[in-house]
Design goal:
Blueprint (H helix, E strand, L loop, with lengths): L2 H12 L20 H13 L12 H17 L7 E5 L2 H18 L7 E5 L5 H9 L2 E5 L10 H7 L4 E7 L11 H10 L3 E5 L26 E5 L11 E5 L2 H5 L3 E3 L7 E3 L9 H37 L4 E3 L7 E6 L7 H10 L5 E3 L12 E5 L2 H4 L2 H16 L8 H8 L8 H10 L12 H9 L2 H15 L8
Parallel strand pairs: 2-3, 2-4, 4-5, 5-6
Antiparallel strand pairs: 1-7, 6-7, 8-9, 10-11, 11-13, 12-13
The protein binds pyridoxal-5'-phosphate (PLP).
Pyridoxal-5'-phosphate binds next to helix 4.
């Protein structure tokens, strides 16, 4: 094939994707709305695409890029003289490494038994993955059911000498609210536990705003590490995040070195061996282009648009804004028993070309959290708030006329008796067929599927979710 034909094929493949640009996809992607940012990022990425950040002594350019970006992040986010950091592949990897470092430190200090990870239930799912991978026990801490912020009293009750790390969010992904960082970091420090601030999504916005209600960064006593993603509001392409640690010893605790094989000596600061340098170079270039003034302008414009969006959406009949959004995220919930079902609303918005992310209802002790619609506002959406609100009003009217999505009671009853661990892949395929997602093809209306996921016992739901992915990733027939 010719290169042009190959590229045409790739472009054709993308026709079925949600748009990465234009601001209508309000999850997964972060569009500054500035073509110069995208062009520079692409050029920088291309010039580093063959570089291997595995070895910064062979590629000193990579060390320079990493040191520059970590230095900028530390200066922006309250770092002190001992602050160091590592570039990772994304938010999840930053969170994983923060947990690993805390566990290692806790073990080195002689922590008894199996380490515990305290998670307000709104902490990102990446921390559950970390506990799974690194063998920590998750202690779920309920959040305040109205403000959706982590509850210091509940954290105090759950803290004990097995707690290696407490996680707080600045802000939380599901609702965009800021946890009480000062209070909880103080409690963690008093108990001898580490405290990680997950600022993956807010850390490149909050420092540029004037209306942040309280300090949230490494300057807060008790905070031991902080994550911030450059591939979110740093407007870099996918694959780059920063993990800051308050002291160099803690950073070493997530590094890995071995001379125990006959190959090259290995020192890995992150989970990967070979590390792509393209996203790092792109983040560096975008930072050089925008600088603090450019980021400040983007953050302020996007924040103003978010406030207008929240005010407009909250004024629509049957909808309310959850908690107090502090950055550029908004969560909408049904207002009152006769309000608009937000799972139906998500489907109606999809039909109008917007991707708003449905989040199912969540049961927790102390008061359940409602189903919500998550909206991530980026630079590109900022100029389209009026159009978004008009579509939202229209979609809310149509959603209100739809039947409320309910899980099929027979399926739920049947699921109650299932041992998810005993199900084979073929049996899961069969169950998914019954649930309307046979063959891994998602139905046009997802509300009933989300309602079902929420109604199933969590282990069964998790087995079925994995089953959907299993169906999506079936290898193509080998071309002859
Ligand atoms: C607060 C927070 N933490 C962690 C993550 C995980 O980041 P990633 O998807 O880059 O792995 C996200 C992603 O949205 C997030 O919002």
């Amino acid at each position: 094939m010719t290169p042009d034909d190959v590229l045409a094929e790739l472009t054709a493949l993308q026709a079925g994707d949600v748009p990465t640009h234009g601001g209508a996809t309000m999850a997964y992607v972060y569009d500054s709305g500035r073509a110069d940012v995208d062009e520079l990022a692409a050029a920088a990425q291309a010039s580093f695409q063959w570089t291997n950040a595995l070895d910064p002594t062979a590629f000193p350019s990579v060390a320079r890029i990493e040191n520059d970006l970590v230095g900028v992040a530390a200066a922006l986010l309250g770092g002190g003289p001992g602050t160091v950091g590592t570039l990772t592949s994304g938010g999840t990897e930053s969170c994983l490494l923060a947990v690993l470092a805390a566990r290692e430190r806790w073990r080195a200090a002689g922590g008894p038994g199996r380490a515990r990870l305290l998670l307000p239930v709104t902490a990102h799912a990446a921390f559950r993955k970390a506990a799974h991978l690194f063998d920590l026990e998750v202690v779920d801490v309920p959040v305040d059911p109205v403000s959706c912020r982590a509850d210091p009293a509940a954290v105090r009750t759950a803290l004990d000498d097995r707690c290696a790390l407490v996680v707080i969010s600045a802000p939380s992904y599901p609702h965009g609210v800021l946890d009480p960082v000062g209070e909880i970091a103080g409690l963690a420090a008093a108990a001898g536990a580490g405290c990680h601030v997950d600022a993956c999504i807010g850390g490149w916005v909050l420092p540029f705003l004037d209306d942040v209600p309280e300090p949230f960064d490494l300057s807060v006593p008790g905070v031991t590490s902080l994550s911030v993603d450059l591939h979110k509001y740093g407007y870099a392409p996918k694959g780059v995040s920063v993990l800051l640690t308050a002291d160099p010893e803690l950073r070493q605790a997530h590094w890995f070195a071995t001379a125990g094989w006959p190959g090259y000596p290995v020192v890995n600061p992150t989970l990967a061996g070979t590390r792509p340098a393209g996203p790092m170079a792109a983040a560096w270039a975008v930072h050089r282009l925008l600088g603090a003034p450019g980021y400040r302008q983007l953050a302020r414009d996007t924040r103003a648009a978010t406030l207008a969006l929240a005010a407009g959406a909250g004024a629509l009949a049957g909808l309310r804004v959850v908690g107090t959004p502090v950055t550029t995220l908004v969560a909408l919930a049904q207002d009152g028993p006769d309000g608009v079902d937000v799972l139906n609303l998500a489907d109606e918005m999809t039909a109008r070309g917007w991707l708003l992310q449905p989040q199912p209802p969540f049961a927790q002790s102390g008061g359940d959290l409602p189903a919500t619609l998550h909206l991530t506002v980026t630079g590109a959406t900022a100029g389209r708030v009026d159009a978004l609100l008009a579509d939202l009003a229209d979609a809310a009217r149509d959603a209100a006329a739809l039947p409320r999505p309910v899980a099929d009671p027979e399926l739920v009853a049947a699921a109650a008796g299932i041992d998810p661990a005993a199900l084979t892949v073929a049996e899961v395929d069969g169950l998914l067929e019954l649930a309307g997602v046979g063959g891994g093809r998602l139905p046009e209306r997802m509300a009933p599927v989300h309602a079902l996921v929420a109604a199933l016992p969590r282990p069964v739901a998790e087995r079925l979710l994995a089953g959907v992915l299993d169906l999506v990733y079936r290898p193509a027939a080998v071309p002859r």
